[in-house]
Amino acid sequence: MKKILSVLSFALVALAFVSCSKNSPEGVVKEYISCLKSGQYEDVVALCHFKKEPTAEERQGYADLLRNKMAADLEKKGGISDVEITNVDMAEDGESATVSYTIKYGNGSAYGNADKVVKVDGKWKLHTGK
């Protein structure tokens, strides 16, 4: 009996890790929000897919642009307190999805949005359209 419970416990823990994986449509959106929350704008850019791979200089420019636009706004709203994934609409081919979510801020306000994510070389990335 102990062996069965041990195996079931292991299976549940493994399932929890898989379902919370960063390599899923909702996982990449949660990671994106987490990076915004902690001010890791270079990591936000790394989570994005571009039609033409940007140079290191261009990546830094995107990160700086995000920092300049987002940091003051997030501070004004009391930072990000939570993110809730409200829907994942997976494409039939399994290569793209639209993830709907709500960001909750420290001042009590919230922002709902939906982002397209795409699978690139087996990894989920935010679709930039650029």
What would your notes on this structure say?
The chain has four helices and five strands. It has 130 residues and is an alpha+beta fold. It has one domain (22-127): Nuclear Transport Factor 2, Chain: A (Roll), CATH 3.10.450. It is 45% helix and 30% strand. The model is unreliable at 1-20 (pLDDT under 50). Strands 1-5-4-3-2 form a five-stranded mixed β-sheet.
Overall shape: flat
At CATH level 3, the topology is Nuclear Transport Factor 2, Chain: A
User: How far apart lie the N and C ends?
Assistant: 56 Å
Query: Can you give the helix content as a percent range?
Result: 40-55%
What letter string, H or E per element, gives the SSE order?
HHHEHEEEE
Beta content comes to 25-35%
Counting DSSP H or I runs of 4 or more residues, the number of helices is: 4
The structural domain count equals 1
CATH class: Alpha Beta
Q: What structural class results from the helix and strand content? A: alpha+beta
Q: Largest sheet at a glance?
A: 5 strands, mixed
The poorly predicted ranges are 1-20
Which architecture name does CATH use?
Roll
What would the average pLDDT be, to the nearest integer? 86
Using the CA coordinates, give the radius of gyration: 17 Å
Across the major sheet, the strand order is 1-5-4-3-2
Task: Please outline the helices and strands.
Layout: H1 2-19, H2 25-38, H3 41-46, E1 48-49, H4 56-76, E2 80-90, E3 96-105, E4 110-120, E5 123-127
